[in-house]
Amino acid sequence: MPEANENDHKKLGKELDLFTFSDTVGKGLPLFTSKGATIRRELERLVVDEEIKRGYSHVYTPDIAKLDLYKKSGHYPHYKDSMYAPIAIDDEEFMLRPMTCPHHFELYLSKPHSYKELPIRIAEMAKLYRYEQSGELMGLQRVRSMCLSDAHIICASEEQAVEEAGYALDLIEYLSNIFGLKLGVDYRYRLSLGDRANTEKYYKNDAAWEKGEALLRGLLKKRVGEFEEAKDEAAFYGPKIDIQMKNVNGKEDTAFTVQYDFCMPDKFDLTYIGEDGQPHRAFVIHRSSIGTLERTMAFLIEKYAGAFPLWLAPVQVRILPIGEGHFAYATEVMDKLKTANIRVELDISDETLGKKIRGAKTEKIPYALVIGDKEVTESKVTVESRDPEGKPSASNGAGAGKSISIEEFVDKVKKEIQDKK
User: Fold this and answer.
1) How many domains does the chain have?
2) One domain, residues 92 and 204
3) Same domain, 288 and 368
4) Are 153 and 287 in contact (CB under 8 A)?
5) Which residue from 15, 39, 144 is spatially nearest to 85, judged by alpha carbons?
6) pLDDT in tens, 88-103
């Protein structure tokens, strides 16, 4: 499968200088270069800004907590084998966190809440640590250190919880559309169910399982009609809707998820004051809008074959002065692009122009600006796109193949970035 090998994110990640691993740092612990960090930052900004628009409150909670917190939530011992070993400090045991939900529940419990406030949507770009087996580690798709676009929605009723699950799917589909991912082509829905007989793996409450699964099943039927149901794939605390994607080698993973939780509200005594002035048990939706940044990056690297859309490209423009006499004007152009918040590099190597252009295209940089005598005299730039054959066309974007003023180029590029085409 040659195409899969060419588009494999591990291969492209190295060629495009996005991330690396070090045995000295540890297996499954990715190190992101400046370029890889740029992609992460753009993804994080997109998610956080969109979630705040949709009523989420973004918070920060610690990467470590007492072991007692995970015993209280039930994650320990359920996920003991995939958690890092406890750390003994001052006669207490702490753990690197493998999930965020118990932290968010403690945040919710820090003050009383009225039914008028619900739903409360607590979100975080959360660093998590999971001890995946060595044989399961695979590039950025399965790592031991990750950043999850996590959120927990505290609801007043089952009906409100299902409504919030639908809103979470709206957000997932909105973001997927920005990435160019299509339902039925790039991803599919799976209803992940529990197993009533497996009381060791799942929280015991048959009636709640039946109700939760029926609610999510009904939601999916309204939205997409047909979907897969998978027994024994649920979280220990409830059923979930998983968004499944395949990598270029055909292996499928869960990319994003929306989970219905009837267990944690009991364990943490999550309540709100109702209209009657009495405390009532809350309901919880767990959801991740774009999954972990690491796994999402892996999918997107392969989806785009490393040729990221302009808004996501680590380097958006490279300036190619033909000779030393053009460096001064090229530096002026670079400064104008930087002022406009456009990510730009200046190539002052001694290579020929042809090699510089080929280098920019090999590195999949969206635009290259050629600067020679004519451009300096006319105060313009000549735009080259990353089209593999160098064919200028309207589809190539911001004035590809033409000599235009720097102001015109900046305006076109800023619009293309804003539109996230």
Assistant:
1) 2
2) yes
3) no
4) yes
5) 144
6) 999 999 999 999 999 9
Task: Please check whether residues 29 and 99 belong to one and the same domain.
Answer: yes
CB atoms within 10 A of CB 48: 17
Tokens of 354: 């042809």
Please indicate, yes or no, if residue 309 is contained in any of the structural domains. Answer: no
Report the DSSP beta bridge partners of residue 243: 189, 256
Q: What is the pTM of this model?
A: 0.91
Based on the fold, state whether residues 354 and 293 are members of the same structural domain: no
What does the pLDDT look like over 172-214, one tens digit per residue? 999 999 999 998 889 999 999 988 777 777 777 778 888 889 9
Domain boundary residue among 303, 329, 346?
303
| Per-residue model confidence as pLDDT tens digits over 252-291 | 889 999 999 888 999 999 999 999 999 999 999 999 999 9
Helix axis angle for 34-53 and 293-303, nearest 10°, is 110
What is the 8-class DSSP label of residue 187? B
What the block records as the tokens of 332 is 């002026």
φ, ψ at 28 (rounded to 5°): 75, 15
Closest CA to 305 of 1, 6, 2, 43: 6
Do the domain assignments include residue 415? yes
Give the range of the structural domain holding residue 347, as residue numbers without chain letter: 317-419
List CB contacts of 265: < 8 A, sequence separation 6 or more.
Answer: 271, 281, 282, 283, 284
pLDDT band at 235; cut points 50, 70, 90: confident
